[in-house]
Structures are given as structure tokens and as C-alpha cells.
Amino acid sequence: MSKVTTLHEFIMDRQADFPFASGELSRLLNDIAVASKVVSKDVRRAGLLENFLGAQGSTNIQGEEQQKLDVIADNQFINMFKAGGEVCGIASEENDDFMAFDSEFSKNGKYVVLFDPLDGSSNIDVNVSIGTIFSIYRRKSDIGSLATMEDMLQMGQEQIAAGYVLYGSSTMLVYTTGRGVNGFTLDPSIGEFCLSHPDMKMPETGRMYAMNEGNINICEEGIKEYIETYCQQTQPGHARPYSGRYIGSLVADFHRNLIKGGIYIYPDTSVDPEGKLRLLYECNPLAFIAEQAGGLATDGRNRIMSISPGRLHQRVPFFIGSKKMVEQAMSFLK
Ligand code: P6P
């Protein structure tokens, strides 16, 4: 049996890549892994614990009805960041404003984390894959002070690290620190994330497209044309048209495309004129991973990681996946 590399070992081995690293980022990544294990346990037992399933009875700033597990996961990550000392502040989909941690311990933290604690939460009650998405930046404000909004509103290209956890048929953690993408599968028998997908590369093209086609008549004409006259028609050299695969959980659709090739599209529509997905804690982290794996992520016209954020919960149109497929889709946009 070949040697198993745990996430902890992998992070420590890679720490040498950062000559000036004093271990804070390593500790932060390990903290995220620990919180993810706890959330994974809660997700997998949710059906058995009545206070885990269903709506929380509140709505978040997005106007979305919060699920109990959304709030449980959000609190789990926030408590882990507060206790770890590497993070001076956070922003999350489930909190209206950002949080500046005010203990002396946390004010000395070098990093801020923006995250969606449980993406796809409408799928929780029907046992479909859901995920956590996170984005790590070095703070801009002075160490020892309270985190600021400026720390949160950084361009995606400033990310130090980004990743996601997929609570699927297995629990996987996939992340990048700008030196490639690596995937780890949680082995419940030992409670460790183990390296299962080293040096992940997104195929340059693929045959699957993920889009809520219920939006096809309320988005720009070029997208309808791309789906109907390109994806749904047999192309030269292929036996049949592309396949539509839409899970309704961004992390799950993205992960499938990362492994098999494909494109995910959530355009701006007459219902969501800026798009539905959030730039800071959904699009930027997945864009970092996509680019590191050889893929592409745009808003249909501009590189996602070059967009200068104006608001914490800013939404953008999202085209992400295999480079040639994203370029092909963009060619249909006027
Ligand atoms: P719709 C989940 O709420 C999410 O943010 C993504 O995970 C998912 O791809 C999308 O929204 C689903 O949105 O409008 O198709 O239900």
C-alpha cells in the first residue's frame, strides 16, 4: 500500500515553498480542515437531528431563507477562526456585515477569510451535495488594529489561498496557494483528509454544460444561442451534442467540471440583473482554483479575479470552467 499523505503533512511539506512563512498560513489551513470535518459530521447526521434540518426562520442579507445548517456551519467556521489567532476578521454569506475580531489575540492575525459556509443549502433537505467555499487574503490594515472593510474588498488576484469543501459521496477538500491545485479526501476511519487528487488540472475542453435553463429566456440572447445552437447540436467530430448537468450546488458542478471538463454559467438575468453568485466568497475563490488548474473564469467579458470589488455581497455574472468552453461561450456574447 503506497504511503498516505495527510493534509497536515502536505501543508507542512509545502510550507518550505514560502521562505518567509512562519507557519501562520499552515495553521490557518489546518484550522479550516478541522472545522470542515465538524461540518461534514453535522451534514451527514442532519437528517437524524431535527434541529439540524429545515429553515432557521430567518433570512440573510441576500434575502435567502437561512437553513439551520447554514447557521451551524457559519458559527463553526467563525469560532474556529476566532480561536486560531491567524485571522483578524471575516466576511461570510450569512452575515450582513464583516466581523473584525476584537481580542488582542486576533487583532494580531495576519489574514482575513471570506467564505460561504454552506453553498447550495436548498439541497440540504433533499440529500444532494453541498459545499463550503473560502478565500484567504493578507490584511491591508496594520497588525494589532481592527480589521477594516478595505481588508475585505480586495481583488481576487490578491488572494493568498482559496479552496472548497465538497460534502458529496465523500467529503473532499480542494485548495490552492498559487502553486497548483490539490485535492484531499476525508477518510472517516482515521478522521484525516488524505491526498487523493495531486496536481489537479482542468481539461482544456469537455462535453458538459451546467446552467439553470429555466433562465434561458430571461438572459442575454447570446447565451440562449450558445446553448441551443452550439451545446445542443452535434459538433463535427462528435457523435452527439453536449450533456446538460446542473446540480444546483455550485461547488458540486464546479468540482465535476474540474475533473471531467465542462462549463458552469450563471448569467445576469432580468431577475438577477447583476447575476446571482457573489464575487468575494463564491466566484473569486473558485476562479483562483480554476486558473491554477488551467481553466478560466470571467463575468462573460472580464476576468473575475481582475474585478475590483465595491460591496461585500456584490454579485457578478459567472462563466467558469474549461478554458476553450468559456472562450467559446464568450464568443456568443455581443
Ligand atoms: P438557481 C446555491 O444557492 C447557488 O448559490 C449555487 O450553489 C447554485 O449553482 C445556484 O445558486 C442555484 O441557483 O437559481 O439555479 O436555483
Structural overview:
The termini are far apart. The model has no long low-confidence stretch (mean pLDDT 94). This protein is α+β, with helices and mostly antiparallel strands and 334 residues long. It has two domains: 7-197, Fructose-1,6-Bisphosphatase, subunit A, domain 1 (Fructose-1,6-Bisphosphatase, Chain A, domain 1, 2-Layer Sandwich), CATH 3.30.540.10; 208-331, D-Maltodextrin-Binding Protein, domain 2 (3-Layer(aba) Sandwich). The chain has helices at residues 7-15, 24-45, 68-84, 104-107, 149-152, 221-231, 250-260, 279-292, 323-331, and strands spanning 55-59, 65-67, 87-92, 99-100, 111-119, 130-138, 161-167, 171-176, 181-187, 192-197, 208-210, 243-244, 263-266, 277-278, 296-298, 315-316, 318-321. It is globular, with a radius of gyration of 19 Å. Bound molecules: 6-O-phosphono-alpha-D-fructofuranose (P6P). 6-O-phosphono-alpha-D-fructofuranose (P6P) binds at residues 119-120, 122, 212, 248-250, 276-277.
